[in-house]
Amino acid sequence: MLSSYPVRKKVLFVITSHDQLGNSGRKTGFHLGEVAQAYKPFYDAGYDIDFASPKGGKTHSYGADMNNAADVWFIQNREATGKLFNASKLSEIVPKKYDAVYFAGGHGVMWDLVNDSASEMITRTIYENNGVVGAVCHGPAALTNVKLSNGRFLIQGKVLTSFTNKEEREIELDKVVPFLLQDELQKKGGMFKPLANWQSNVQVDQRLVTGQNPASTGKLAEEMIRLLKNKSLGRN
After folding, report:
1. Residues of the chain falling short of pLDDT 70
2. Which candidate, 67, 148, 226, 230, has a CA 20 to 30 Å from the CA of 24?
3. Which domain holds residue 92?
4. Where is the DJ-1/PfpI domain (predicted)?
5. Is residue 5 part of a domain?
6. pTM value?
7. Total tally of structural domains belonging to the chain
């Protein structure tokens, strides 16, 4: 007998495992606000969320804002934090189980997710299965080398955004990161659309959704959810 309950859609949140900010002697990792402020909209919309990272387990985080309701809610949610701090390894992920993949930012992404073959395979598989790919702030670094089955870069010819060169220079990390993300996305054929520093900016092109900075996270999640709902209704 078939169940009368609808199958819950699943979203994979990918975070970095890297915790060293170049040779600066400072710690980095993933931006907790960019996890929390995306997690809550997906959770509220009824999606199942899993976490994965290159090494799995717990990773250093920063960027929690105790004045942000979503951040506070997430930190106090034992189920959510339990999943986050027990992330699966990317090599263990079966991408066909997921309707979307979301890359949270944090400077660590610039080191370990740029050439991660498992991450690239997961992204390609989900996108080519008509799924949605989202990334915010430094998260789009994980997309820079993703190639589709036709040999083209996933981002080639698509309108997108990320943490900008100007924002990187303002926080004086432009000489610390291994490359400037805006430049690399443009080099790989992305049509980059920035706004002023720290302004919310979300770009949607087909099933690719990108956000410029932490302030863009909530809107990005809403756009991903909209695309997933349209997909369910047969509008894509």
Report:
1. 1-7, 232-236
2. 67
3. 10-231
4. 31-225
5. no
6. 0.95
7. 1
